[in-house]
Amino acid sequence: MRLEHIPVVLGVLVCIVAAGLLYDAFRPDDLRPHRERRRRRRAVPHRAGEALVGAGTLCMGASLIGQDEWRWGTIVVFVGVALLVIGAVLNRVYLKEMLLFRGAARRGEGDDPDLPRDDKQKPPMRIR
Prior knowledge:
By secondary structure, the chain is an all-alpha fold. The chain has helices spanning 6-26, 47-66, 73-90, 92-100. α1 runs antiparallel to α2 and α2 (47-66) packs antiparallel against α3.
């Protein structure tokens, strides 16, 4: 394999990731999980924002495949960055939860009134 083929292979891998993001944005609701197992409700990703992130990633992969010889490479990179930023802004609540939330994500009791709670709360077990 020649050194010039590395950006092309990397671009194909980025395009495969973009295809996964686009599939996730447009797949039907009945394929998504229905039962919530966390203590808190998860933030729902914005579908249009997720599709824009996928399209921006696809633009980045296309610019890698096109290398320096492609006439539209610079424009595609600018469009890709714009799509990634707009998609990230639309998904800011989801991204904030995924990146910054470090709390307990256990099943069972919690602050959510929709989840069932036991009447008896057991004291925490202490190991000495």
